Amino acid sequence: MSTQITSEQRYAIGTPGQPWGAQEKADWLAAQEVKRSYQDEVVSEIERLAGRFDVHQYGELDYQAQGASCYPLYALTTVDFDLDKPTILVTGGVHGYETSGVHGALRFLELHAEDYSADFNIIVAPCISPWGYETINRWNVFAVDPNRSFIADSPAPEAAQVMEFIQSLDVDLLAHIDLHETTDTDNSEFRPALAARDGKLNTNWNIPDGFYLVGNSAQLQPEFQAAIIRSVEQVTHIAEPDEEGRLIGTPMVQPGVVEYEAKPLGLCMGLSQAQFVTTTEVYPDSANATPEQCVNAQVAAVTGALDFLR
């Protein structure tokens, strides 16, 4: 196993046992800093791919009133969309700090998407939360988690705008692969912040060392999940369960796979009625994996899924 932080931690903002109000959220936002550039690292790559894919600016996040920037939101689709072909959705950067999800989506476009375009329409939204990408954050500027916000009347514009875009395409998705990471900062920062925001007691989980998947318990599709695991294990190691047979505190239902209730939790993988859905989880802080392997693991997850479906 990797990090074993299990102690209860006091977060710097707020009063224990009391949910945050407007002042605490403002204090949290004031503490955030831009650490990297969405324009230089993501938008520039999208522009480079524009000659090969249709690029859609499906919205923007105007966070200037919150002291941040105005971020254009992009999705790319394979050319010659054909409604007689099944449609696949790949999403990255729902949690902006999860770097390999963003760059895995872009690398899949660069290296592989065209190879599958004869069989599938492909939609890729590589960075759903650009402010989170720049500040290396799980939440948006309102201290809202986009990956709990894929619901009607969403409180997160990141979730609302991509859902509206997918609906505007008027396609039935066959599959949706949502690219994520589980990092040491989940325990050192994000879970303590969540507990503080909600006025609850925080107890961290053990973070798995390696790649794993989160399937939708309403439609797990175990053979689909297994095919992705087989593809990824050619690139990096698969997480082993802890001594209780769990990953991130959840029972492992098959090697490298746990399951969540996607729609009740408002998860991105629950945004549609797709038959085949999964959320990837890479561990970038592993001593046994490099950042390059993490990106390649995300790519292998997508190609493994498409090879199974094809």
UniProtKB/TrEMBL annotation:
<protein>
    <submittedName>
        <fullName>Peptidase</fullName>
    </submittedName>
</protein>
<feature type="domain" description="Peptidase M14">
    <location>
        <begin position="34"/>
        <end position="309"/>
    </location>
</feature>
<dbReference type="GO" id="GO:0006508">
    <property type="term" value="P:proteolysis"/>
</dbReference>
<dbReference type="InterPro" id="IPR000834">
    <property type="entry name" value="Peptidase_M14"/>
</dbReference>
<feature type="active site" description="Proton donor/acceptor">
    <location>
        <position position="281"/>
    </location>
</feature>
<comment type="similarity">
    <text>Belongs to the peptidase M14 family.</text>
</comment>
<dbReference type="GO" id="GO:0008270">
    <property type="term" value="F:zinc ion binding"/>
</dbReference>
<dbReference type="GO" id="GO:0004181">
    <property type="term" value="F:metallocarboxypeptidase activity"/>
</dbReference>
